[in-house]
Amino acid sequence: MPTPTYIPMANLTLSSSAASVTFSSISQAYRDLVLVVSGAISSGGESLRLRFNGDTGANYSYVYMAGTGTATESSSSPSNTFIMAFYNDSTSTMMAGSILDYSATNKHKSVLFRGDNASARTMATAGRWANTAAITSIVVFPQSATWTAGSTFSLYGIAA
User: Fold this and answer.
1) 3 state SS of 141
2) Which of 28, 67, 84, 128 gives 103 a disulfide partner, CB atoms 3.0 to 4.6 angstroms apart?
3) Domain for residue 76, yes or no?
4) ∠ at Cα 80 (127, 8), nearest 5°?
5) Is 99 helix (H, G, I), strand (E, B) or coil?
């Protein structure tokens, strides 16, 4: 039987609301990571954000494109304190993305995220963390709202 490509590393379902979710002590045994989020936030009109290794400096950049079915939008941020992975309202959202070469120590980290919310938009984001450190922790957080109880967060390692 072939070895599975997606290796489960962590899975969390919130039993109560939370301002953020942190994956820490991330194993360095894989080449890439996949993060999957399915949940809602307590208030609408907020971006869902990622931060690595506790870095709150302006070391992140991203570009995104989105569509609502009747309109399109795109934007970029060349110097920020987070990567915006998705823009959400307060209904359920599905967001998944790849963090490429997360364990490499000779390059900046690239992320590709996509998400869908039937009442808000479909969106894709490409981002960069300008740091050569291996990623050992990831924080997933809304702009100022909280994740609602029942939201799920899964992290997978991708075998090389």
Assistant:
1) strand
2) 28
3) yes
4) 45
5) strand
